[in-house]
Inverse folding.
């Protein structure tokens, strides 16, 4: 799905014409890219050297999803915010991230999760008290 955007000029703004496209789902990362238009071509293939042209050839997750290099973008889990790009989900207030999922209930008293949490909180308290 390719769209041509013509030159746009106003009294205070001018933008050159450009093409945009929507691709099928693909993993996060650098992509080879070739455009053939008006008897001209432009391509970025192979290793990326950090040029501005090259920076545009990287797919990243949209806001509301997350994923790292080589991974598929996943929808943001309930109880988290996802800023897109390659950022990991961030737990909302009163939620936490555990084993890749968001949890909203406190662990049951005496459960392995509660014991682990109690130990972590006790260690954190000792650290802050200097002991």
């Amino acid at each position: 799905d390719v769209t041509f955007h013509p030159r746009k000029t106003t009294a205070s703004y001018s933008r050159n014409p450009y093409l945009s496209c929507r691709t099928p789902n693909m993993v996060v990362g650098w992509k080879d890219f070739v455009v053939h238009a008006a008897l001209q071509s432009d391509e970025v293939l192979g290793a990326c050297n950090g040029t501005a042209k090259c920076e545009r050839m990287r797919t990243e997750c949209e806001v509301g999803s997350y994923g790292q290099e080589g991974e598929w973008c996943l929808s943001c889990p309930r109880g988290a915010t996802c800023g897109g790009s390659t950022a990991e989900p961030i737990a909302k207030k009163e939620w936490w991230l555990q084993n890749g999922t968001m949890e909203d209930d406190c662990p049951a008293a005496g459960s392995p999760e509660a014991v682990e949490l109690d130990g972590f909180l006790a260690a954190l308290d000792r650290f802050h008290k200097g002991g």
Remarks:
- The radius of gyration is 23 Å.
